[in-house]
């Protein structure tokens, strides 16, 4: 059973989206791997603050070319499909947590390139939406 102090701490973290903020910052840190991580994190927080003030959209770490490259790594023989397990692992590696468990092709264990990109972009957009929510909490 949680103490009042633990409950208060959990409520504070939830109210201010602290876990989401740290998840986003960690993801950017691991993706970019800067030489000076502290300065990089400060810069990201400053950019978040600027986006809050200007209404600018949040960062998007991956684009279509990146997703094509990820799919190509998973499909080196160019079969034009990957397994459901590969699809799921790739999306988790991209930082997408709420994965569609029944995408087109899942029943046949053949996820097409197009389905992979669609699901990945939707997941990335949901992550960006989390970033947008964070702007309002600063």
Automatic annotation (TrEMBL):
Domain EFCAB10 C-terminal EF-hand: 65-125
Coiled coil spans: none
Pfam families noted in UniProt: EF_EFCAB10_C
Listed CDD domains: DD_EFCAB10
PANTHER family: EF-HAND CALCIUM-BINDING DOMAIN-CONTAINING PROTEIN 10 (PTHR21847)
Stated name of the protein: EFCAB10 C-terminal EF-hand domain-containing protein
Naturally occurring in which organism (per UniProt): Champsocephalus esox
């Amino acid at each position: 059973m949680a103490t009042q102090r633990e409950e208060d701490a959990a409520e504070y973290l939830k109210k201010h989206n602290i876990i989401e903020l740290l998840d986003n910052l960690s993801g950017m840190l691991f993706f970019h791997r800067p030489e000076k991580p502290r300065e990089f994190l400060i810069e990201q927080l400053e950019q978040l603050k600027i986006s809050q003030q200007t209404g600018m959209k949040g960062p998007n770490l991956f684009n279509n070319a990146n997703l094509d490259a990820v799919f190509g790594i998973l499909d080196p023989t160019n079969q034009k499909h990957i397994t459901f397990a590969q699809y799921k692992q790739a999306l988790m590696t991209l930082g997408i947590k709420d994965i569609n468990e029944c995408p087109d092709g899942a029943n046949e264990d053949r996820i097409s390139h197009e389905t992979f990109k669609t699901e990945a972009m939707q997941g990335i957009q949901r992550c960006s939406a989390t970033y947008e929510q964070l702007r309002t909490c600063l």
